[in-house]
Design goal:
The protein is an all-alpha fold and about 230 residues long. It has a single domain, classed as Orthogonal Bundle (MetI-like fold), CATH 1.10.3720.10. It is about 80% helix and about 0% strand. The chain contains eleven helices and no strands.
């Protein structure tokens, strides 16, 4: 218990003194995971809308792959991305290995299936006559998609929260493709792992508390917007 209290005190000390390194790591976590979540939303909503609205051969297999991807092991994603980005790999000349960009790619791959799955479920629950009615009223395909997404916006907020949560809490893939380099690719999750490996448990607990607080605040904001939308 004393170790836990030491960690809590260390967290308040870091927050109170404005530790530059910790805040730099926190900001990098937000930038990397926020970018990955945005990309996952673009990819996931597009594919989710296609799977929800179109019937084509192999659709059930595609949905099964999406559902499987929702539980994709991060270390497997990290391994595949690392192989592609390694200096001798297909994308090696781009020089992305051990950079924040590589971490964004890995986290996007992890978060995108979650967003896709939530989108398929949200759009699939809408009335089947909604789209024909919108077309009958003269809506274009893009207008129809926008109006349908507006109708399903409440469940889609859950997709955003799930995607961001998966990205910001991921550690295995980030270590493999980012390398946990100080001042460059170190984020909150990898910093926690490093502190724990060194036996510095109080800083590890402090960083964990800051990570949990960050996730809580983001979800608090999104939940507030979601609840306000549900009452409007």
């Amino acid at each position: 218990m004393e170790l836990i209290w030491d960690g809590i005190r260390e967290a308040f000390r870091i927050i109170g003194t404005g530790d530059r390194e910790v805040w730099s790591i926190t900001l990098r976590s937000l930038l990397v995971s926020g970018s990955a979540t945005l990309l996952a939303l673009i990819i996931g909503i597009s594919i989710g809308a296609l799977l929800a609205f179109r019937r084509f051969p192999g659709r059930n297999l595609a949905v099964t792959l999406v559902n499987t991807g929702m539980g994709l092991p991060p270390v497997v994603v990290g391994l595949v991305v690392a192989i592609f980005l390694w200096r001798s790999g297909p994308l090696g000349p781009l020089g992305l290995i051990y950079t924040p960009a590589a971490m964004v790619i890995a986290q996007t791959i992890i978060a995108a299936p979650l967003v896709t799955g939530f989108t398929v479920a949200a759009l699939g629950s809408l009335p089947s006559r909604l789209r024909p009615q919108l077309y009958a009223l003269g809506a274009s395909r893009l207008q129809m998609l926008w109006l349908v997404l507006q109708e399903a916006r409440l469940p889609l907020f859950a997709a955003i929260m799930a995607g961001f949560g998966a990205a910001v809490s991921e550690v295995g893939a980030s270590l493999m493709v980012g390398g946990n380099l100080a001042g460059e690719t170190r984020v909150l999750t990898t910093a926690v792992v490093l502190a724990a490996q060194r036996g510095e448990f109080a800083p590890a607990i402090a960083l964990s508390i800051i990570l949990l607080a960050l996730v809580f605040l983001i979800n608090l904001v999104l939940t507030g917007v979601q609840q306000r939308e549900s009452r409007s």
